[in-house]
Amino acid sequence: MYNEKMLKLAVPIYVELLTAVVAVSVIDLLWVSGLGEAAIAAVTMATTVEYFAYGLILALPTGLTVLVGRRDGVAPVAPLIRSGWLLWLAGSTAIALPCVLLREPLARLLTADAATAALAADFLLVAMAGLPIYFAQTVADGVLKGLGNARIPMRNALICNALVIALDPLFIYGLGLGVQGAALATVLARALTLAVSLKTLARLAPRDAEGRAGAWQIIGTGLPMSGDFLARAVVGLLLMEIVARFGLAAQAGYGIGLKIMLVGVMAFYALRQAAMIRTARSEETGSPLRTGLLAGVAVAAALNLVAAPAAGLFTDDPEAAVSFLRWMTLYLIPFGGLIAAGGVAQASGRGSRLLAATLAGFAVQLPLAYLLSSWLGLPGVWLAMAAGTTVSLAAAPVRRAGAPGRAPGPAPRSTRTAADPRCDP
User: Fold this and answer.
1) How far apart are CA 182 and CA 179, in angstroms?
2) pLDDT digits (tens, 9 = 90+) for 336-372
3) List of residues 6+ apart from 241 with CB closer than 8 A
4) Which H or E element spans position 258?
5) What is the pTM of this model?
6) Residue 21 to residues 17, 48, 51, 380: CA-CA distances in angstroms?
7) pLDDT for res 1
């Protein structure tokens, strides 16, 4: 059983997530590719640092989405939003300042090549200084999603992408700023997008003045999601180390395969956010677990279909990437169910149990990857990924995921009508 309204909510979230990933990891890379391999490597490494920084702040927008959803129309929301902005100020400073000051050691940690490290440090100087702008956008989007509006965050992501596409060539080549120009263009694009977003938020957000909201409640609600994100990022790096033992071609194939697979995987995360939003707002979700499993089947089938031509866009020897995508069928189906159903667990106060299940899966996956890879080669790594995700799904609190309105807090409220201005972009 699925819920049509949840799927409609997931579509703009998918577009938002996909375009946000494109803006960060592809557009800058495409424009700096004309500067040489060192520039490409520098931007790749610098955006990896930003990826981890995002994981550190993720608890804030996630906690706001869930708590705003629970309170909207039932209890004052403005105090919660004010607490969110105070947390943004503290969190942005605590994360961005050390990243700026330590940019050169960070760059040297990521590469032994002095020229590449210098370029990465130049990029990090601007990108890390611009983190508060990026984080502010996630806060604004988190509040809007809590209010049940996913179309405005999608619009914001599309605006930002368009600006990056236009500004990158101007700053990189027109002004001759090179790699640092790519970072400046991205930060400026995000700043302009944020200005539009804040104006919209000021119009749509409730202005109730009474009530209290604890900062720790926001962080505590979103912390499991942040932990899940960071754990997956760390495990991804460890798997890259295992794959690297099989040579450069295997490592390149793995990297290419991951980029292609990301297009499909974003559908699972869109379903998770949609389930989280509707659960927090005590609205029907249908069965996110079943929907996620079906999405896993659909994504796996699509990736098998496009594996060869898609990998061929990146390399003249797509065999390793194609093999990876074929094996991922065993991984994607349980992963789709785990991620989609996880949104209900997160919004209904079971996020810590979900994180524990994720870590249990990784505790199985990593040793198994080392063991099976020495016996079966690369297929052993892919089998370990499937086994670890299956363990996480079996241990996750997803069996009651289809039950609507389980979130602690307000009683179910009636669904907003189209006349409510907060439903419009």
Assistant:
1) 5
2) 999 999 999 999 889 999 999 999 999 999 999 999 9
3) none
4) helix 248-280
5) 0.85
6) 6, 12, 10, 29
7) 46
